[in-house]
Amino acid sequence: HGNLTIRLLLFLPDSVSKPVPLFLLLNHRELSNTDPDRNTIEDFWPAEEVIARGYGIATIGTDDLSLDTEGTFRDPAINLFNNEVTLPDNAWRTIAAWAWGGSRAMDYFETDADIDNTRIAVVGHSRGGKASLWCGAEDERFALTISNDSGCNGAALSRRRVGRTLAAADVLFPYWFNENYKQYNDNEDNLPFDQHELIALMAPRLVYIASAQTDSNADPEGEFLSGVHAGPVYELFGLQGLGTAIWPALDTPIQTGSIGYHIRTGDHDMTSYDWQRFMDFADLNIDKLPTPIVNTGASGVTSNSADLVGLLSFPDGEVTVDVYWSTNNNADEAAWLADVADGDAQSMEIGTYNNVTDQSVTGSVSSLIPNVTYYYTMAATNGATNIWASPNVSFTPFAPTPPAVEYCTLKTWPHQAGTP
């Protein structure tokens, strides 16, 4: 029922090779917190610090999706899809609209060749943290979901009834969640789920929960316990969740598993300290996520041909796989593409695949030169992003075996002149 414009602010580092991983903030605060001209620099969105660590950073303003007031929350996104005078009891409300906007930003990231769309984190603080959790749960394209001080209806366990409760939140913000959810106000024991199950929906992807010492409304311990109780779902994937059930000391992050956590000295806010811990966690873990494409080796090697084999895991969409081979051991994507352009490397499309895990892919190549060492790699393309397997794999076509020679013995007999 109309059009919608979502304004996306994006900074990428110049000093690192592309594509780069990226943090996306769902910003529910004033846009001055994310000043594009950088005349105002806030810890809430420390773009310079993130760029210095080699990550891209982006943000969308939640007012472009749902205004954070009871009388106008349907503008603009909800009215785009729901034109009823009264919304159905099960219809989406503000938090879901903000989360939906995060997915629309991801749609763009998939078209930008400078962004690694397999290594994107969605971040939110407070009510924005509630939205980031829902965004990460709904959209499996996000590799890392970060909740900062999200509290009730975010990371904190509702059944504890510590800090702000469901009923208290609903009195203040009745438009955040749908009408059906209100039946659990002051009735938390009858909830069919609790927030640890929301955290578990991120498995096997990464999730980070951050709390603040004096943020009693958000129930920091309850936020931690959601991470603890989500752990068994990660274990089903053979992964470690938090790895501990002991609430850590202040400013002592837990970052060794697929779920990270810290409780920071201070109050309800998102600070430079928080962002630095988010990036520490990403540094440690985001490259440990399942690699979409792996070079597994050459098979069936002859004097002039070989089968170049890879393993593809891309469970959430369509991807095209190409194989590249050369006598040069090219270091990266740029070197491979330059080699192809110069005629020193060759490439071949193997095929297009949809929603696959541990799929063997093979490119059969020929016209190779015997006794020459070759190197190959594979690239998986999703949208504008090429994901290159690493490291390259070498193989050497063997020299052809010379044909067998049969030998015979020549015998002679004495011959007398004049005899036939």
Q: Round the Cα radius of gyration to an integer and report it.
A: 29 Å
Task: Give a count of the beta strands, DSSP E runs of length 2 or more.
Answer: 13
What's the tally of helices?
A: 9
Overall structural class, as computed from helix and strand content, comes to alpha/beta
The N- and C-terminal alpha carbons lie at a distance of 113 Å
List keywords for this structure.
420 residues; elongated; seven-stranded mixed beta sheet; single chain; alpha/beta
Structural overview:
The protein has helices at residues 47-52, 77-81, 94-109, 127-138, 166-172, 195-200, 220-236, 272-285, 333-341; strands at 8-11, 20-27, 56-61, 115-125, 144-148, 206-212, 259-264, 293-299, 306-326, 345-365, 374-382, 385-388, 393-395. It has a seven-stranded mixed sheet with strand order 1-3-2-4-5-6-7, with helices on both faces. It starts with 7 loop residues before the first strand and ends in a 25-residue tail after the last strand. Helices cover 22% and strands 27% of the residues. It is an alpha/beta fold. The mean pLDDT is 92. It has nine helices and 13 strands.
